[in-house]
Specification:
- With 100 residues, the chain is mainly alpha-helical.
- It is built from 4 helices and 2 strands; from the N terminus they run H-H-H-H-E-E.
- It is 54% helix and 4% strand.
- A two-stranded antiparallel ribbon has the order 1-2.
- A hairpin with a 2-residue loop joins strand 1 and strand 2.
Amino acid sequence: MQTQRTVDGTPSPDSTFVAPPLVPRRSARRATARRASDRRATARQRKDDVEGRIAAYLKDHPQSTTGDIAKGLNAKRVTIAAGRSHIARAGDITNGRAAE
């Protein structure tokens, strides 16, 4: 068997060993998953209570439209519409007015 030569003329080894890609240890994967889970939990805790803000705004401004509420709370109209829908289904507001 002839030895193969590299570009600079030196002989290359007969066998080239290629290491398989390393998979992280189980503990490292679990630690990464734990950190991601903690980040998601923190994000859920920081989530704004839009429905509570809508109900409070409607108590002060009972005839407000969805657009008015969105401007007043500095939120997206779509978010306000969804929150208002959830509140109405729960029975906390009726005909656009907050239940007292």
